[in-house]
Amino acid sequence: MQDRLLRLIFRLMPHRFAVQLVSWMVTNSLISRESTMGLFCPSLNCYACPAAAFSCPVGTLQHFVLGNRAPLYPLGFIGLVGAVIGRTSCGWFCPFGWLQELVFRLKVPKLRLPNRYNWTRYVILIGLVFVLPAVAKEPWFCKICPAGTLEAGIPMLLLNTDLQSLAGWMFVLKAGILGTLLAWMSTTRRPFCRWICPLGAMWSLFNPVSVLQIAVDRGACTACGMCREVCPVDISIFENPASGACIRCMACVKACPAGAIKPVLR
Amino acid sequence: MKHKPLPPVWLNRLLLITLAAAVIIGLWLGDWGVTLQNGLLLCLSCIGIG
Q: Which fold would CATH assign to domain A212-265?
C-alpha cells in the first residue's frame, strides 16, 4: 500500500501544477450550483465567485457562527479532511496557494522570512472567523479575504456595471489588501498560507495526527538543506516531519538526494 | 536530530470517527440546507460591495 502511494506521488509530483489547475477549474466549473453548493471544496475558494460550484468552508463556518448555529457540518468536514491528509489540500488543491506559487515565479528580488511568527494565522482564525462574526454578526474574514476580492469582488464589478456605484471604501480596502499580498507573493514563498490563512491554520493542527504523514529517515538524512530549497513554505522538513507549516506538496520527497524523505500512511 | 514522537494511531482513528459523526449529525440537523442556501445567496457586503 505504502509503495503504491509512493509510486503514485512520484508519478504525480511533476504534474502538481496541472493538478492545481484542474482543481481550480473543478471548483470554479460553473456546474449546477443548486446541486453542489451544499458541498464544500477542500480549499479557500470564494463561493461568491460567479463560476464557483462549491461552498467555501471558511465562509460557511462564519455564517454558522454569526447565525448562532453549531457548525457541525463545516467543522466536521474541515476536520475530516485534516485527519486524513493534513494540509495536503493547501499544496495540491487550493487555487489561492497555486496563485501564490505562480506569482513567486516572477523574476524579482526574493525575501526569505522565518516561519516563527506563523501563529498570526491562529489569531486571524480565532478573531476573524469565530469571535468577530459571533459578536458583530458579520463574516469578518470574508470582508478582508483577498481570495474573495480576486475571485468574486473584481469579476462581479466587471460583469455587472450596475454594482460599480456600490463599491465603496470597503472594496478599496479589500483591493489594497489583495494588491499588497500580490506584491508580497512575488518576493516571499506563500505568505498568505504561512501567516494569514485560517483554513490552513485549522489543517495545521491535524498534520501531526493525520493518516498521511511524511517520514524522514534520520540515518540517511545528511541535513543538506535541499528540502528547504524546494519547499514552497520554506521549511526544513528533517527538523520536524509533522510540522504544522508543511503543506504536504511532496516537493522534498522528490528533491532529497539521499531519498530519506517518504510519504507514509498510518 | 531527534523527532518528536507522533501521537498514537488510535487518536487519529478516534478523531476520524468523531468528525464523521459530527458531519452526519450536522447533516441530520439540516446543515446541508443552510450551507446550500448560504452558498446560493450572494452576499455583496462579504465581497466588499455595498
A: Alpha-Beta Plaits (3.30.70)
